[in-house]
Every structure is written in C-alpha cells, then in structure tokens.
Design brief:
By secondary structure, the protein is mainly alpha-helical. It has a domain at 20-116. Helix content is 73%, strand content 0%. The chain has 4 helices and no strands. α2 packs antiparallel against α3 (66-108). The radius of gyration is 26 Å and the shape is elongated. The chain starts with 11 loop residues before the first helix and ends with a helix.
Amino acid sequence: MSHSVGVQFSAAPVANKDIRSPWRSRLRLEYRFLSILVTVCTYVMKGLRALHARLGGIGHHPGVWKGFQFVALLLGFPIFQIGHELFKFTYALNQRRALLLSRENALLGFYDDALEFPHLALNNAGVVNIFHRLSDANRRIQRGRNSSNC
C-alpha cells in the first residue's frame, strides 16, 4: 500500500479572509493623516496665540509710541480671527476622527458605543458659545467616567 502525499486545496483560507480589512486599513490611514493634520494645526494655533499675546502686550508698555500700539491692535484682530477659524477647522477634523472611530467600531462589531456630537456643531458660533459647548461636553464625559468607576 502506498500512501501518496498530495497537495490539498481548500477554500478555507479564502473564506476566512476578511473582506472588510481594506476598509479598516483605509479608515486607519485616514485617521492617522487627520491626527497629523490636527497636530500641525495645533502648533500653528499655538504660534498665533503667542503672536497675538505679544501684540496685545505692546499696549501695556508705557514707552511705546501710540501709533505703534494702534498698529499692533489692528494686527491683533485678524490674527485672532485666523486662529479662531483654524480652531473651528481643527475641531471639524476631530469630529471626523470621532466618526472614523465609530465606523471602525461598527466594523469590529461594537454598535452601541458610537461617538456622536451633534450638539457641538460650530455653525456661526462665537468663541464664548464654543467654549460653553466644549465645557458642557467635558462635564458629561467626566460624569460618565465617574459613574463607570463606581
């Protein structure tokens, strides 16, 4: 009796292949790109904040010519506005990142922990309104953490 050793072909490796993996890799790649973009925007906002503070500090020096103080004041307004618009852009990027996380969780089978922030939209919101919305969201997150620790 001779036993022949042959190559066995089966469909199991093909059937076990996850067809969702290209979507997951695309989501992860986009998430990483958005993370880098958010980091760059954050550093630019930090520089704009420092420049705005420096221009605002010029008005407090008694020996500075009044015309120079006026020019510094005029430059301070657009710098603040650019920083505010950059903040809104960065916030939108972070909302996109949260959406990507919820989609990846859905691909992994976690449907009930979707991250949604519909009440934090920044459409025509001023600085004070944005600050209050973010503070409210932070308080809700802290309450959730405290209740889960009990």
